[in-house]
Protein: SAM-dependent methyltransferase
Amino acid sequence: MIITTAGRTNSSLTTRAKTIADTYNIQYIERNGCSINTLMEQYQDDIVITGMEKLVAMSKKSDDKLFFHPNLALIRAKRLAQLEKDPFVEISQLQEGMSILDCTLGLASDSIIASIAVGNGGTVYGLEGNPLLYLLAKEGLASFSSGNSLFDEAMRRIHVINNEHYHFLKEAETNSFDVVYFDPMFDTGVEGSNGIGSIRVHALRNTLTQETIDEAKRVAKKRIILKDHWKSDRFAQLGFTQYKRKTALFHYGVIEITT
Structure:
């Protein structure tokens, strides 16, 4: 992965790009009038472009541009504010002051909703194993402005960690989170979901194993949640109780922790 600036750059953009390069230990490349396609061909790597309002990533794996935006989380947050139910919050039984570990952060839509649900007294940690998605999520959560102070505060509270979930869980203390959450890439694609499609090419393909779930059972105090395609075999294979949702393309599974 390398980082550069937009074509029309200035000293502020250049400084920000260099700061990000130092922070994430990636290479900064002067644009020097070169097109992004030329740079991609020359360096054969993902490119992060520092713009005035956001970071944009481009990859040889996909023609899509990838950038941080809370997307549906904004809509879901408005519904929560109107006291409507959110399926993820309901199934996780998230309440003020609870802690949750999101093992598959992506671009953090569910973690933002979790942060709203647990409030200032709660804790949200998000794990992202892909360095590019990690960078976009961490920088986006820290800088995106929605115009809603409560929503922005919820984003800022999320702790973003660049790690693969099994390794993190192995090192985590027993009973250190109320809820452990998994949202792995579906084996079956969801038609019409362009946002997810853009992330799919970058997401880790590590299989969710029984060993990982066993570690999650040790780390979670209350429950483990799995979000997966409604046809997925993982619910039954890994011991989750599947809660079916009419017309929904994905379902949630739950393992309740009993002592």
